[in-house]
Design goal:
By secondary structure, the chain is an alpha/beta fold. Helix content is about 35%, strand content about 25%. α2 (about 95-110) packs parallel to α3 (about 130-140), α2 (about 95-110) packs across α15 (about 395-415) and α11 crosses α14.
């Protein structure tokens, strides 16, 4: 039950430990027990990390995996086009099997690109069977997942029975946990929002809320509804004073820079979040419109903010996608850094690949040159789930066939083309 990762460049993301130009990481029973320049562990299984960067796995706190089958279809879409396509055109045709295979492949994609912890923001609300299919998919994939249940999405129907039903299945602390995907006061009114937040408090659930209108944070604040368990998403167009209310409440902010820039939300809120006292976090959002890996997200967020004021550094970006994102999900005690006592959620990145070689500054190289092809090895809670560039124990050919069949069936039922000409609302 011991594993020794040896001889790598160790980027711990723990300020007390720093980086080790040459270091070892010892794992016992799924936990990191020691990080040092040299560790003697003759009884351990050895993973040779020479010519590798060893770092914490990425944490993605906002991704809609049910849309995986339509990857790339929305590359040219605005936000209204995406909403029309995904929520009003194809979603009504999703079966539980469609949700299952899209969620499974989406979670495996994230894992393949080094995301060891992921929040799945589910808003394909159709039936209990659809919800259960998503939960089963997340559970079938290795890695830590949070099922963020956007129950009642697009309606104002009561959701308490639905949330309680799923909570009875997903208890706190498991490999797959539950969070509440709030509809928000703009969609349902403040009284409904208050009932949902009270329910989340009672059940010990963290909350994720798309912040799409100025004034939403202020309204929640005025009614005493801001929490340190709340993560706002996007928040484009919201001013720094309103963001300070989030910071004062101990809440967090998730930014999806690729989607926000491409869909017309506006510039990512990274700088304003920092001005407000928030530690921004990063997320993918959706793959019909953007890439599904954290490397491209890091690079977009970095370039966008540097173009405005030049103040961010590569290490800041890595923190947004590891330590800060883990904290936003209430998981800072379990993941986000290579610290003894935490779960061994670890990725090894190739440094001999010509797209990154030679590595002079590890953090700078990860942010500026990193890509999923560098992810050689992934450990989730100490278990090797990707080795030598390939996922372990996954029948990808069969899963690909199922996803293609799902996509083609949905597209045919919805009457939409799959040849790159689909432009909703035209």
């Amino acid at each position: 039950m011991k594993t020794l990762i040896t001889g790598g460049t160790v980027v711990t993301m723990d300020p007390a430990l720093g980086d080790l130009p040459r270091g070892d990481v010892l794992i016992e029973d799924g936990k990191i027990t020691e990080v040092a320049p040299h560790i003697a562990a003759p009884d351990a299984t050895v993973i040779d990390a020479s010519e590798r960067i060893v770092m914490p796995g990425f944490v993605d706190n906002h991704r809609h995996t049910w849309q995986t089958a339509f990857r790339g279809a929305g590359s040219d879409w605005t936000f209204p086009q995406w909403a029309q396509a995904m929520h009003h055109t194809v979603k009504p045709h999703y079966t539980p099997e469609d949700v299952y295979i899209a969620t499974l492949l989406g979670r495996l994609e994230a894992l393949h690109s080094g995301v060891t912890t992921m929040l799945d923001w589910y808003h394909v609300a159709q039936s209990h069977q659809h919800e259960d299919a998503a939960i089963t998919a997340l559970t079938d994939a290795p890695g830590r997942s949070v099922f963020c249940l956007g129950a009642g999405w697009g309606s104002d129907r009561p959701i308490e029975d639905d949330i309680r039903r799923v909570r009875a299945t997903l208890t706190s602390g498991g490999r797959t946990d539950l969070a509440l995907g709030m509809r928000g006061p703009t969609a349902t009114g403040i009284d409904t929002a208050a009932r949902e937040i009270k329910l989340a408090d009672e059940l010990g659930l963290r909350i994720s809320l798309h912040l799409e209108a100025p004034g939403t944070i202020t309204e929640l604040h005025q009614h005493g509804l801001l929490r340190d368990t709340l993560t706002g998403v996007h928040a484009n167009g919201i001013d720094v004073d309103e963001l300070r209310l989030l910071a004062d409440a101990g809440a967090s902010l998730s930014i999806s820079p690729d989607v926000e820039l491409k869909m017309g939300f506006g510039a990512p809120m990274t700088g304003l979040a920092l001005d407000a006292g928030l530690r921004p976090t990063l997320s993918i959002d959706d793959v019909p419109s953007a890439g599904g890996d954290m490397f491209s997200t890091l690079r977009t967020a970095f370039a966008a903010q540097r173009g405005i004021d030049g103040r961010l550094r590569s290490r800041d970006l890595l923190a947004f996608a590891t330590t800060d994102a883990a904290a936003s999900m209430g998981l800072a005690h379990r993941t986000g850094t290579l610290t003894p006592g935490k779960d061994a959620d670890i990725i090894l990145l190739r440094t001999d690949d010509l797209t990154i070689f030679p590595v002079t500054d590890p953090a700078g190289s990860i942010v500026s040159q990193g890509h999923p092809g560098l992810v050689d090895t992934v450990l989730a809670a100490g278990h090797v789930v990707k080795r030598d560039g390939a996922l372990v124990g996954v029948d990808l050919p069969t899963l690909r066939e199922r996803l293609l069949a799902s996509r083609d069936r949905i597209a045919a039922a919805a009457g939409v083309p799959l040849d790159g000409t689909w432009q909703p609302l035209d």
